Amino acid sequence: MSTPYAKLPAWADYGLIPLINLSVAFIVAGFVVMLVGENPFLAAVILVEGAFGKGTGIAFTLFYATTFIFTGLSVAVAAHCSLFNIGTEGQAYIGGLGIALVCLSFDSVLPWWAIFPMAIVAAAAFGALWGLIPAYLQAKRGSHIVITTIMFNFIAASAMVYLLVGPLKPAGSQAPQTRNFLAGAELPKLNWVIELFGAKIRSAPLNICFLLALVMAFLVWLLIWRTRLGYEMRTYGHSPKAARYAGISETRIIITAMMISGALAGMMALNPVMGDQHNVAIDFVSGAGYVGIAVALMGRLHPVGIVLAAILFGMLYQGGAELAFEMPAISRDMIVIIQGLVILFAGALEHMFRPYIQALFASVSPKSVGMQAIKGTGA
Amino acid sequence: MAQAAIELVGINKSFGAVRANRDINLEVARGTIHGIVGENGAGKSTLMSILYGFYQADSGEIRVGGKPVSINTSNDAIALGIGMVHQHFMLVDNFTVLENIILGAENDALLKSSIAKARSELERLEREYGLEVDPDAVIEELPVGLQQRVEILKALYRGAEILILDEPTGVLTPAEADHLFRILKQLKDQGKTIVLITHKLREIMAITDTVSVMRQGTMVATRVTKETTVGELAELMVGRRVLLRVEKGQSEAGAVKLSVKNLTVKDSRGVTMVDNVSFDVRGGEIVGIAGVAGNGQSELLEAISGIRQAVSGEVMLDGKPIDLTGRADPGELRDRGLAHVPEDRHHVGLVLAFEENENSILGYHDDERYLKGPFLDIDAIMADAKEKIEKYDIRPANPRLKTANFSGGNQQKIVLAREMEQDPGVLIVGQPTRGVDVGAIEFIHKRLIAMRDQGKAVLVVSVELDEIRSLSDRILVMFAGRVVGERGPDATEGELGLLMAGVEHQEAAE
Amino acid sequence: MDIFNAIIQVLDSTIRLSVPLLLACLAGLYSERAGIFDIGLEGKMLVGAFAGASAAAVFHSALIGLGTAVLISVAFALVHGFASITHRGNQIVSGVAINFIAAGSTIILGQAWFQQGGRTPALQPGERFEAIIWPGADAIRDVPIIGPIYAELISGHSILVYFAFAMVPFTWWVLFRTRFGLRMRAVGENPAAVDTAGISVAWLRYRALICTGILTGVAGAYLSMVQNGGFVKDMTAGKGYIALAALIFAKWKPVNAMFACLLFGFLDAASIRLQGSPLPLVGKVPAQFMQALPYVLTVILLAGFIGKAIPPRAGGVPYVKER
After folding, report:
1. What does pTM read for this prediction?
2. Looking at CA atoms only, how far is residue C310 from chain B in angstroms?
3. Of the residues A211, B230, B319, B355, which has the fewest C-beta atoms closer than 10 A?
């Protein structure tokens, strides 16, 4: 029997293979850079420097990372049930609507620490709701969740545009966005933490949502690996037949997982909306939902990996902005290419290098791959 | 003397550690019907797949019409005049009969001429062999018997001179099976060579000229059908192995704990898999169900454990009925004291990606012993897992190790430990020692007997006759979905083998 | 008379707006019928649009532009094939990845090569596909009813439009009257049947993907060389997904696909036309509602409320020889 997915020691599985996939993605991206007529190594240096060189850079990097942690967690939670939630983008958008409603209602009467919890609940609830319908359709009517969530992304976009040029737009304004929130709906910044280390930050949007994101990462870990629900989700994700055998209800799992996933996506909106822009504008999500897919895949669906991957992508975004400055030929869209390549190599082609790595390991140390050392003729 | 149509010389094929075909020699004379019998896992299908180009043999030679050939793809086989009718049909359900027949055999880039040619050829085949079927009918609307006819027509259309049929009668009614045999005889009279893979001895005796018996990857014997008897074949098929007889005392059967009455189960194609089966299992006894795989045992187990829908009949657990609509809650059944060790431990009984301790609570993960509120009580789970590891000698003794890294025998022990330690009233077990090493087999058997001695009702389904004979207090034999006989543990192999092969008691007595 | 002209205008727009949808939809039909999910229609259209407009501008030839568009689209389709068929990867993930790579590279390369903010140079005559005026169109134009229909709806489109509509019966013919079509449909329903019949499953699926690449290339070329006079970043604007929606709506049949795309094209044209003006009974319909309508309809279809949409049985599942 052929074993396409042969055994490897754990560290190779979780560390080496993703690293290789990532490296290949970057190498291919490097070729694109060359196609544009720039030096890929120089570009890499500028990228890293822009992301981590100065305090402001670090703050921005972590700000972006915050967004991606949420969307990455969202995709990962659903993925643990082998559900491909591409709807994170739309769920985040609708989450923003919930936040807008809370903030616009209370920002003149309540302080941020009272509004924030309500906004969290609203964001999560609205996001969960947007994930509920595709989940229900999948569970009860077998509608493929990938297609329905893509459709719902577009429906969300249309709905939000309608609201933002209509009911939610302040009278007399031209810009398709809500009015700016008052101080009550502005979240405190976290830049001062970085300044503790001697950096000076002029202005950066890093805010307490970063802490919330880390908390959520921990809670997701707790959920998936330490709760009964998480156990059931993982069982179903690995083997629906075993789940049936174990008495786990498929419908309940699908709906619950998608609602949690949608809630996390909705919470992503807190970062840009309450932490930075202080309003809800058109397309404030700007692709973060899709980045979440890359982050989740790269992070191997584990919160620790996701946080690291999110920081990596945050670095790409921030460093990319610097890069666009220094090398005008390479705009922010380079990041989109890298994102695509990461998804390709960490996702669709994730096993491409496995046989070669396995052969390498087998020739050096057969025991590490579970084979006996072969004496005489090879098998 | 007619030249051999097919010769296989020294065929070997392994899949990883499993030696599916061991040094097989086979000769089939042209214009004859040759049967290949054996239990599941004997290697029959693998051998024929090699002949059909689906797999390549590791070593050995194939000769067709006396000439050595190399068959690397199905195309090569087809070009040599070899056609195969698979056990699971290779048909496109929403195509018509004609479309299925010309698939791969189109004579042109445009379909029109291919369809016309096929239509007239089909008429000819129909007239010659009585293989009537509406050429424009859509496959999914045809009954299974007719679908099989299309499979045969496919092979004949492509000029098959050698026809291989893999367990063809599994989905046919007796009348359809007879019709099939008439067709096969006609084909033989026309000079075609036919290889019939089956485990049903009556069919062998009815239409084959010669028969080979395979067992555990080797070719055990070849006989001229007229010169052998069902009894001899049964013995050869079931075979003599090292019998691990477990020490066991007399059983003291108590009250009926599991009662199956007139249970009938059909599969998704409407074929009856379990046919009006009734039996009881009492506390303190082991009832073993013997039979070649595919005779309804799997469906029976699935129906009893609530996973599969039954058409009619009832199953009572401790006097109360089990939901047979296919939507039963396995959790509820567990609460009522029914434990189930499924036949497929890789995809149903275990989650191979989980750690050992995670699998040791599968199905019981909602038990408050293992939970602290909504959270898993890791300490309790680990302690529980360690206890089971020790008691059942599971190796390596590491509850954190990924289940996929345990050997088959130890994996099975994990499942058994889990189900047995829940102290169920009724334990149903499918293939308890499939893929399990010899050392673990004895251990598992001892544990099953221990359960019996504690007054549990135990139902064991196994294709290993030795195991059934060793464990059971009562033996039921299933064939074609029915219980065809009940025997005590002293029944002989030959006797049971005959029942398993579908031969009634009276015939065997000759 | 005014209403009639308005209707003709809308129908004319409908035709033009539905062409890229139709081409992309038919493209998706080939791959999905063969059992490969392709979410990457959007990305392939985009690179096709970019490649077409760039090549046309550089080589001053519409034909070279079209050829390049097709070539690049096919290349991306083969990457999808490599991941899905040869490496049995997740087809959704692969499609999503391709969309990103396409989106990013078209902008980066466009900016680098042409320095016009992501667009390609405006195409001159000879570098685009011009409208083809049918004989007598101008003469008939003033004849009531028939005139405008002939002059506006039938005549006066670029060759790619006629090509797109011609592809509908052609695709039907390929699917149901040729050997290739038969095998392709078979491999999407039961690849094992195809394998045991001695046909290579992988090669068949690759060929289907090549067809997909060709048609998405033409779709992209239409966008940047007919509908617009050059490439603009993100110019596909979700049309690839609408095409996917149309494909599901059409239940994977060519003629239905044409009607579905015309329907969605009509919704698009109507929403542009109705901008701001109230409809009888309903009042003002927000433009966004019309935009969302194709997606809502698809969801309703998928939920099984407008009949069942049964996809090819082996769709999305990598083929592994059973053992």
Report:
1. 0.84
2. 11
3. B319
